[in-house]
Automatic annotation (TrEMBL):
<feature type="transmembrane region" description="Helical">
    <location>
        <begin position="682"/>
        <end position="705"/>
    </location>
</feature>
<feature type="transmembrane region" description="Helical">
    <location>
        <begin position="92"/>
        <end position="113"/>
    </location>
</feature>
<dbReference type="GO" id="GO:0015421">
    <property type="term" value="F:ABC-type oligopeptide transporter activity"/>
</dbReference>
<dbReference type="InterPro" id="IPR003439">
    <property type="entry name" value="ABC_transporter-like_ATP-bd"/>
</dbReference>
<dbReference type="InterPro" id="IPR017871">
    <property type="entry name" value="ABC_transporter-like_CS"/>
</dbReference>
<dbReference type="GO" id="GO:0090374">
    <property type="term" value="P:oligopeptide export from mitochondrion"/>
</dbReference>
<feature type="transmembrane region" description="Helical">
    <location>
        <begin position="637"/>
        <end position="662"/>
    </location>
</feature>
<feature type="transmembrane region" description="Helical">
    <location>
        <begin position="189"/>
        <end position="207"/>
    </location>
</feature>
<feature type="transmembrane region" description="Helical">
    <location>
        <begin position="39"/>
        <end position="61"/>
    </location>
</feature>
<feature type="domain" description="ABC transporter">
    <location>
        <begin position="321"/>
        <end position="558"/>
    </location>
</feature>
<dbReference type="GO" id="GO:0005524">
    <property type="term" value="F:ATP binding"/>
</dbReference>
<dbReference type="Pfam" id="PF00005">
    <property type="entry name" value="ABC_tran"/>
</dbReference>
<keyword id="KW-0472">Membrane</keyword>
<protein>
    <submittedName>
        <fullName>ABC multidrug transporter</fullName>
    </submittedName>
</protein>
<dbReference type="InterPro" id="IPR036640">
    <property type="entry name" value="ABC1_TM_sf"/>
</dbReference>
<dbReference type="GO" id="GO:0005743">
    <property type="term" value="C:mitochondrial inner membrane"/>
</dbReference>
<feature type="compositionally biased region" description="Basic and acidic residues">
    <location>
        <begin position="575"/>
        <end position="585"/>
    </location>
</feature>
Length: 741
């Protein structure tokens, strides 16, 4: 992720496919949409509303068809009239279906287009904003939080715009149209549906808010678990060295266990809402049909009115049920968008374009400036940040290399420059910088030379090799200023000698600012500043400071004593090395070059790994069997969920049988209206029984599968984390690169 981000406008450059930096950061995600995107969005919104408004018209067609069939059964209409009614209803079904399909397809495509475009812009703007922040911001940013925002939260935002917003708009239009149709049929029938509409609105609102609260609580804990896992896996060597595997595993499991409760509560809330949504038609239908039968015997309504009102009421109530989950995702996406936009709009104290950029005294980190820092007598707050960075090269104590080739790692030094260079010129300057950094020889000794992959954070190279590549990257664009922050403090004496040669050559023709505890690094400095307890106590050239006999004099005296002891050790060590070389020279000639041998071992191990991976591939049946074994402690819950799902599924065909009996009762003539009321009342009671069955079965499905899936996910995460930490060091370093150069 990071190498690609470096091409962004954070470095004064633009990247194809991303909008240019906006003078005023948008306050909403739609601020990242172009004029065309907004036009597509509003057109799609209109299409979704229109498609939703047309959907309840199905109830009118259905009511007309049922009324025609009942009239024919009662003998009050001819076959010709029935054929005409059925043909008309069929044509209306086809035309309405095609129209709804076209509108839904167009609106959905438009929403997905807008969601993809806006998410792309946010994926560009968010890393850009992260890179603009000062160090104090990153100190407070938990490991993995930024990547989790990019991979998870932006995905939620995109889902909210792409699909859930379309569903919410169409569901609202469906509900409004269904409400109007119900009142158009008969106000008494419509009045009976109002409590169901109100109940669906209240329940969906409560369920949405409650589930979002539980989701946020679980997400916060899962973020902590993710950060712990990322830190542990990135520090596998230290985990093995200090025996921290069991401690980290327990801590990771505790995080997962703590997150399970709010996660489970959220799922139970949603499952209860789903159970109510499936039980609701079994409550609304019998009430409308029973009241309709009474009104029918009084000749206040027709079968057409009853059927249309019942279907429209259920369609409207189901629309509200669809709004609930969609609203939940929309709320989650708005919450995620708020966090992302707050980060993007957060002004860094080092950003000269922000209101804080002209106030160096306010830079976070408790650094007190008695005078404003200046570059060539110019206040740095007045300089363009991109231009300033283009003229500064930086080498830290622990250089950060990206998991790509050595060539690309050095080439990243060009990102901040505005020079227009050909590929040949870039290649020549990369090789020249590597030679100046004394890195060319060991690079060429690697199996793939400059195309060798350095691994995550450069772990396939030694510390001295990483530092020399970092120096080459810093000087490849020939910066006017070079900053060195403890560039040799983390190296052994042999590596330090090579790196110091590279630094001396790099500092020869440019202004260099060196922060160091090893005085050998700054022997040739024009001006040395000695600090103690945060204050400057000495300043001058090396000769002047030695003549003063102060703190610097004492520090160098101690370092010389230490170096003399090290030299004595190196002399004895060199004698042993020469003896070992004599004893092993014959063996080396017989087995070939060590580099080739190491590379051959690497190839064999990689081929073995590939063959093991190929053999470890599971079929669908094996995968299901494996998952069942992991989920076996919850086998009772699984069978309970399967049984509940079967009962819930069987309730639908049972309802269709009851519905057909009610239609049959409505076909009775006026002379049998008493029997009509009795039959409708009987089947209405059966509907109430089906409502109880639906409520219990769907609740069982949500409860059983919710608990079992959370337990399965927790077990898989914990075992995967433990399995990674159980591997030896070679697992995290699959390729061997000779480190003796």
């Amino acid at each position: 992720m990071m190498p690609g981000v470096l091409w962004r406008r954070h470095w004064g450059l633009s990247r194809p496919g991303c909008m240019e930096s906006l003078p005023n950061k948008p306050g909403t995600v739609f601020g990242y949409a172009s004029t065309f995107d907004k036009a597509v969005f509003y057109s799609s919104a209109c299409g979704a509303l229109l498609a939703g408004a047309m959907n309840p018209l199905i109830s009118v067609i259905q009511g007309r068809l049922v009324s025609g069939l009942n009239e024919f059964s009662a003998g009050s209409t001819t076959t010709t009239n029935l054929d005409s009614t059925v043909l008309q209803a069929t044509n209306l079904y086809v035309y309405l279906s095609l129209t709804i399909f076209t509108l839904v397809f167009a609106s959905t495509t438009g929403f997905y287009h807008c969601g993809e475009r806006i998410a792309t812009e946010l994926r560009c703007a968010y890393p850009d904003a992260i890179l603009r922040q000062d160090m104090s911001y990153h100190d407070q940013l938990a490991p993995g939080r930024a990547s989790n925002r990019i991979m998870t939260d932006l995905g939620i935002i995109q889902e909210g715009i792409s699909s859930k917003l379309s569903v919410a708009l169409s569901a609202f239009a469906i509900f409004a149209t269904a409400f109007v149709i119900t009142f158009t049929m008969h106000w008494k029938l419509a009045a009976l549906t109002l409590p169901f509409f109100a109940a669906m609105i209240i329940i969906s609102t409560i369920a949405g808010r409650t589930s979002v609260q539980h989701h946020k609580a679980a997400t916060r804990i899962y973020d902590s678990a993710s950060s712990l896992a990322q830190e542990a896996i990135a520090s596998t060597k230290h985990v093995h060295a200090y025996g921290l595997r069991n401690v980290l595993q327990r801590k990771f499991s505790n995080y997962l266990q703590a997150a399970s409760k709010p996660d489970l509560d959220g799922r139970h809330t949603i499952s209860t809402f789903i159970a109510w949504s499936n039980a609701m038609p079994c409550l609304l239908y019998p009430l409308v049909f029973w009241a309709g039968s009474v009104l029918l015997t009084r000749e206040e309504v027709s079968v057409f009115d009853i059927t249309t009102a019942a279907y429209a009421g259920v369609i409207g109530a189901f629309a509200i049920a669809r709004v609930g989950p969609s609203a939940q995702t929309l709320i989650a996406s708005m919450s995620s968008a708020k966090d992302v936009l707050e980060t993007i709009s957060h002004s860094s104290s080092q950003d000269p374009k922000s209101s804080h950029g002209l106030q160096p005294a306010q830079i976070v980190g408790n650094i007190e400036f008695h005078e404003k820092p200046a570059l060539d007598k110019t206040d740095i707050a007045a300089l363009n940040l991109g231009w300033l960075r283009r003229n500064i090269g930086f080498v830290s104590q622990e250089p950060s290399l990206f998991n790509t080739t050595i060539y690309e790692n050095i080439r990243y030094g060009f990102i901040n420059t505005q020079d227009v260079l050909s590929e040949k010129e870039i290649s020549d300057r990369i090789i020249s910088a590597a030679k100046d950094a004394y890195a060319h020889d060991f690079i060429m000794a690697l199996p793939d030379g400059y195309q060798s992959i350095v691994g995550e954070s450069g772990t396939r190279l030694s510390g001295g090799q990483r530092q020399r590549i970092a120096i080459a990257r810093a000087i490849v664009r020939n910066p006017a200023i070079l900053l060195l922050d403890e560039a040799t403090s983390a190296l052994d004496s042999r590596s330090e000698e090579l790196v110091q040669k590279a630094l001396d050559k790099a500092m020869g023709h440019r202004t260099s600012i060196v922060i160091a505890h090893r005085l050998s690094t700054i022997h040739n400095a024009d001006n040395i500043v000695v600090t103690s307890a945060g204050k400057v106590v000495e300043q001058g050239s090396r000769d002047q400071l030695l003549a003063n006999g102060g703190i610097y004099h004492d520090m160098e005296l101690k370092e010389r004593t230490k170096m003399n002891m090290q030299k004595q050790y190196n002399v004895s060590s060199n004698k042993l090395d020469k003896n070992l070389e004599k004893e092993t020279s014959q063996y080396d000639d017989s087995v070939g070059e060590p580099d080739e041998k190491a590379h051959a071992v690497c190839d064999d191990s990689e081929s073995d790994i590939d063959s093991q991976v190929a053999q470890a591939r599971f079929s669908i049946g094996q995968t299901l069997k494996f998952l069942y074994k992991l989920n076996k402690p919850e086998s009772r819950l699984l069978f309970t969920g399967l049984f509940s799902a079967a009962v819930a599924g069987l309730s639908y065909p049972t309802q269709s049988i009851i519905m057909s009996r009610i239609w049959e009762a409505f076909a009775l003539p006026k002379s049998k209206f008493a029997q009509l009321e009795a039959n409708v009342s009987y089947y209405a009671n059966l509907y109430l029984l089906m409502a109880a069955v639906a409520m219990i079965s769907w609740s069982g499905v949500g409860f059983a599968f919710g608990r079992s899936t959370i337990a399965l996910a927790r077990r898989i995460k914990a075992r995967t984390f433990d399995a990674i930490l159980s591997q030896d060091i070679s697992f995290s370093m699959p390729t061997i690169i000779p480190l003796g150069h």
